[in-house]
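#onboarding

Welcome to the new folks! Below is a worked example of what a typical request in this channel looks like: someone posts a single protein sequence, and someone else replies with the predicted structure as tokens. Don't worry about understanding the tokens yet, we'll cover that in week two.

Example request:
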Amino acid sequence: MTVKSLRDEDKLPLSKVVKLVHKKMDDILRVVDALNLGRTEVKPDGVYRTFNDGNMIRVATGDFRKKRIPSKRIKLF
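Example response:
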């Protein structure tokens, strides 16, 4: 199903959208691996980039632990 207008975008099934996103992501990862740009991984002590040959380089340091939000209230105004 192709979306032709903004009114039609809600008619697209969610499962189809998820499959298309996964397909595009696989294409992107294949290109990144072919160019040996490295995959980015966030760990608690920093951000690392891992290349095809196994080399790992720290891109950024810091505290990247998962944070919990005690309340999910959003104030718009």
